[in-house]
Amino acid sequence: MADGVVERSRPRDRILETAQDMFHKHGIKGVGVDAITEAAGTNKMTLYRHFESKDDLIIECLRATAAKASRIWDEFEARHPGDKLAQLHD
Prior knowledge:
Helix content: over 70%
CATH architecture: Orthogonal Bundle
Strand content: under 5%
Radius of gyration: 17 Å
Largest sheet: none
Number of helices: 5
């Protein structure tokens, strides 16, 4: 943040984060690209510049979710190396 101006995230990141949230709340079939772009404060042209299709956006959302889950498990492993039971109860 510089001079009281809030830095806005990049359009691709906003679209991806918005889509993840909306897919989680409403299901993949319950959300269209119009709703995603409106909620992300962008337009369809920008969405399609970053993602070839809604399917590609879904794939990127799934990849991001899998990467986040992997990081979480890695943190559990680091806190309790070799102790699977402790990792589950963390």
